[in-house]
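Folded chain entry
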Amino acid sequence: MIAWLGYDAPQGVGRSAAREELATAGAAMLDGFTKDLAILRPRANVTVIGHSYGSVVAGLAAAHLPPQVKDVVVVGSPGMGVSRAADLHTSARIWAGQSAQDWIYWVPAFQVWGAGHGTTPTTQGFGDRVFGTRGVTDHDHYLSSGTQSLANIVEILLGRDASVSAPDPAVIGPDPAISSPDSTIIPPSSEATFGQASG
């Protein structure tokens, strides 16, 4: 696993966080990084994980990622710079997780006059795969040990899609993705084992 922060990220919640200039620059660098990684490990299956503004970077990079990138996972996302997953123009599968206890869950999704990041990936009709995040109580702990989100991300990394578990309506609340005709909600019967993986 590689933790990559090869771009200038916004500091706090302000104008730069609401716009895509920093994400556009970051996306070009992420594309370059993943292409170099693909040259070094041409047979590897790569998963890109974007948290918060990093999901905007991943979204803007998606169309140019090398074919070794099989999955793009976003958590705590304000949007990926598009209205629907198809507009990312990538062969990688798109996954999204969102906690109702994350403040970004309540941020309106919009994109106008250079501000905003488009549709939230867990929104009805976006067209991705939505997974559960039980145990995540804020914006910063989607990869904390014992959370449903970490367990699900580990299953995605290992290519065990059938073991990725669904959002819990009792935890998520009125998330429109639960009734989405275009978003794939992982069946509740496919329950991951929690707390077995550590990050």
About this structure: Residues 170-183, 185-199 have pLDDT under 50 and may be disordered. The CA atoms of residues 78 and 147 lie 21 Å apart. The chain has one domain: 15-185. The domain at 15-185 is CATH 3.40.50 (Rossmann fold).
